[in-house]
Every structure is written in structure tokens, then in C-alpha cells.
Amino acid sequence: MIGRFLFVFSALFLISPMACADEDPRLAPARQLFDQYVTAEKNFDIASAKLYANNAEICNWRKSSSGDLQKRCIEAPAYKAMIVKFMPLAKEKGDSNTYSDVTFTPYHSKEVHIKAMRYNVLKGYSSPFEMIVGPDPEGHWLITREYSVSQP
To answer: S-S: 111 plus which of 16, 87, 107, 128, CB 3.0-4.6 Å?
Structure first.
């Protein structure tokens, strides 16, 4: 019995590096960036603004009480300024998010598409959340696009 266990354990140990070697090399830095994003948001850290590229496309579809969606896009420099300005207010209110069903998919030649369900703790609703992340010319991974849905 012990011999069989050791054989199975050894086989799994030898196979797992091969599975990892087949993983797209973009996924690890994308996961790391998303983890930084979630941690900064959880800690109400204004440094999360630095995770966005200066030319990032940020769009939010706001769902009204009647169910209509209004699209609002904002330029990255203005969005970054909003993060710095409103993060302390979010902390004061306890306005936080959690993420579930997170997926990472290679996108085009250098980027990764991240999809998740975002749950707003303060308002008690879930909505789809997506971002595209990729390296800038210096190789730093940044958010280049963010798409979200929110409710009043």
C-alpha cells in the first residue's frame, strides 16, 4: 500500500511541473497585478491608482432602478485622481468589494483578459467586472482597460 502511494505521489510530483511549464507566461504577472489590485482596494490604498496605465480605458455601466444602463467612460488621469480623492471616503463608509469566479485568459499577443463577479459589500449587489492587463514598454504590468457595472 505504501509503495503504491509513493508511486502515485511521485507520478503527480513529476507531472505537475510539466503542467505548469505549459501555462502561458502572461498569466503569472496578470494574477500578481490582480492580487495587488484586490489588496490595495481591500486596504483602501490610494496606491491602486498607480496600477492603471495613463492611457487606460475605464468604462462603467450604471444600472438605474428602472433597469436601464448608462455608459460612462472616464480618462485614466481623471480616474486616478478620483481614486486618490474618494478612497478615504470609501474607507469611512465601508464601501468595499469582493471578487469571485475570477478567470484569466490570454488576450491578443501580450495582454490578459480578467473576468470576475464583483460583490459590493455596502450596497449588497453583484455585477460583472472585467479588465485587460498587460506590460507597458518598460515591462511593468498595468491595467489598460476596465469595464464594470454598478448600481445606485
So the answer is: 107
On whether the pTM is more than 0.90, the answer is: no
- CATH number for 25-150: choose from 3.10.450.50, 3.40.50.300, 3.30.70.100, 3.40.30.10: 3.10.450.50
Angle, alpha carbons 56-47-27 (nearest 5°): 60
d(CA 32, CA 5): 34
d(CA 143, CA 30): 9
Instruction: For residue range 108-145, list pLDDT tens digits in order.
Output: 999 999 999 999 999 999 999 999 999 999 999 999 99
- Tell me, what DSSP letter sits at residue 67? S
